[in-house]
Every structure is written in C-alpha cells, then in structure tokens.
Design a protein that fits this description.
Aminopeptidase, 33% strand, alpha+beta, seven-stranded mixed sheet
Length: 170
C-alpha cells in the first residue's frame, strides 16, 4: 500500500475525524485531543496547521489513494534546541501494520532535512507502543534510551522511549 504525505486540505476534516475518534488511536497520543473528535475539531486543527509558520511547523496529512488516513508533523523546538524538532504521528487503526507509518516517517524526515536547517528529529513514543517504536527503527531512527516514569496517561505512570535521526544519517 503506497502512502504519500501532503499539505492538509480543509476537506480532510471528515477523514481526520474518523481516524482520530478511535480510543485505541487516542491511547497512543498525548492528552489534549478531544474525544470524541468532531469535524469542527478537525477543521480547527487543519486551519491551525495551514496558518502555522512553515519554518517551525511541518504538518502533513498521511494519504492513501488521496484519502487522509492520519497525521504527521515535525515541530521545531526553541532556544538552544532551535535546530531540533519533535516528530508526532498517527494513522487510522485499519491501516496499522502495513508499513505505511514507516514510509510516512521517511518522507517527512527527508522533506524537513531538505527544506530547513533542522539537524535532529526526535520522537518519544510510549514504551508500550511497540509498533510505533518499530516504525521509527525501520525508518532509520536510533533508540537513545528509556525515559522512566516520564508521563501519566489514562491514570497510569508510564515510560517513554527516545528515538532520533540526524540529518547526516538520512
């Protein structure tokens, strides 16, 4: 299955709503995302991504056959970390385990490293999210360590893992 990343369209809001209104998807994301997720939430998110500074926020829809099935973004950090960026992503559950996320990660990293002065992209998946860790590894990210008791999700204190890729490694 071939995926592409592309700029968001306001018309993606309904597909985005379907993808993220799944509790299994939300259990692997940071808090603050509405549940259930509405089309208006999708429009608000897409509008924010389209109006964000393109040198600081690299936000794309993950698509299969032009249908938005998920979201991927790289977000520049600040101060001494201004050439470092954090990666975040998700796809609809029906597309899990098909290699789509690995391909989307490769595409966005190549884009960011070619179009910006970012030298390091990192991701911090929950330690229990083995599939996310594996997608990062298959995309060329290196495991840097476990961030012990680093988050509270669904009322539980959990570990996170730290992965990164450098612009010289792609």
């Amino acid at each position: 299955m071939i995926c592409k990343i592309r700029k968001w369209l306001l018309s993606d809001a309904e597909d985005l709503t379907v993808a993220i209104s799944n509790k299994k998807v939300q259990d692997n994301l940071r808090d603050g995302i509405p549940y259930p997720y509405t089309v208006q939430d999708g429009i608000n998110f897409i509008s924010a991504m389209l109006s964000a500074d393109e040198n600081d926020t690299f936000a794309f829809a993950i698509t299969v056959d032009e249908k938005a099935i998920g979201s991927i973004g790289v977000y520049r950090q600040e101060n001494i970390h201004r050439q470092t960026a954090e990666l975040g992503y998700y796809i609809a559950e029906e597309y899990w385990g098909k290699g789509i996320m690995t391909e989307a990660i490769k595409q966005i990293c190549q884009h960011v490293f070619q179009k910006s002065d970012i030298i390091r992209i990192y991701a911090e998946p929950f330690a229990y999210n083995i599939a996310s860790c594996r997608a990062l590894e298959k995309a060329g990210f290196q495991y840097e360590g476990t961030l012990r008791n680093n988050a509270v999700k669904n009322g539980k204190v959990i570990d996170m893992k730290m992965y990164s890729i450098l612009n010289t490694e792609l």
